[in-house]
Target: Glycosyltransferase RgtA/B/C/D-like domain-containing protein
Amino acid sequence: MFKRKYFWSLIIVISTLILFYPSFNYFYTNDDFFVLNISKPSTLGNFLSYFDITRAHQGFTHFRPLTTQVFFTLAWLFNLSPIPLRIIMFAAFLITGYLIYKLVTELGLTRKMANMSVFLYMTSATNFGRLYSLSTQEFGYTIFVLLSVILLIKYLKQNHPITYYLSLITFILALASKETAIVTPFLLLITFIYLKYAKKPEVERKLSLSTALKLMFPYFLLLAAYLYFRIFHYGFASGDSYIWDFSPRVVNTIFWYGSWSLNVPEMLVDFIGPGFHINPNLFKFWSDYMIPICILFIIEITLLVYMLVTNFKKFFTHNSLFTILYSAFFFLVSLTPVLFLPLHKFTFYLTLPLVGFVIVIAFLLSTSSQLQSAIYLIVWFFLSFITLNLTSETNWITQGEKTAKRVNAYFQNNGDIFTKYDKIVFIDTPEDLDLPWKPSQIIRTTLSDQNYFYVYYPGNFRVYYGNDYVSADAYEIKARQFIGY
Model:
């Protein structure tokens, strides 16, 4: 009994810890310091202003009060230690996995499919960004979106009004977590269609066009109100990477999000293209990782194609076809808010879309033999493991956190020196001139300019970056000593 009931849970938890336990050892970096600064608790009025959708809070153009300001306010309660926040983040990760299980079973699919979906999701290499970077807001909004969908399905099955109202409330909480939650009403619509036409007997007879319109109207009304305030009052983020492109280039964006969903490294986007041209530096510097990654990826694709061909006829049954279509639309609809931003592609945007992706793969595995499924899951895990190791060595998140941790230790160990100065300059040495980036500017980006010092040393001194700011009254710090090379 124990083995049947808890085998998958143990495998998932152990596999997840093996892959992601290193994330607990990392510090803050970059945007973390900015959000820590604006989330510093002062008065109740200041705290409540986080939820004011009529104006941006302290220049923060993302309306994400629950997952940003409220979340980082907790850091101040724990003396700015990142560990409690990482524990909360990991707990949210586990909750997301549980909700995926609930969604799959509520859709009327098998527990075997649900367990495999959760395993694929929880061991995906795309979880790197959302577990290592504390300033990503992905798990919070994903939890509320999944809850909104699950609760509405329960309402359709049980007809308890409380579940419908809770679905609406969780939609509001999702919007207060991240703007990409605007896809929720559309995910609910495709869920309606799936439950209606996939012949789910417990809800099929209850679903009509009039029922759908009646139930969906409050969601779209809330969405319209939210968009009004965001467009005409609060505003949206802007910058060089936030450039909308509705050209056929979207196919390239879908290709990369699909490839990342199969555990290929995010960094490949910088080494492949235009077309299929591969920068030789990829294998010159990272062959120890890339060779096994390529081998495992080829095995993974071969297994998928083999299972697809051998089980081809099974996919044309009524329920199978609708399950595949539902999962595909779930993936694409969830991606829509970032699909037309080709210069702003990141794996952490797959937090919600990946749900649809893993359901498709789990469905394919469930139609195959137990041996084929086991081999595929093992290949998936080891491909993710190697990709995560490569990513941790190269990604700006982990490198920035290491650098920030060194800077933090330096200032803690030399606190007496800095009491004598009100001006500090991170300088570059002549030996740094051959580097592609000035160390002082790397430090500036890593510390979010002044924000690190606003958080840890408020009002103590002013910090500058670069040799142009050197003066007799400034304390000079060689920037390169913190970079790690």
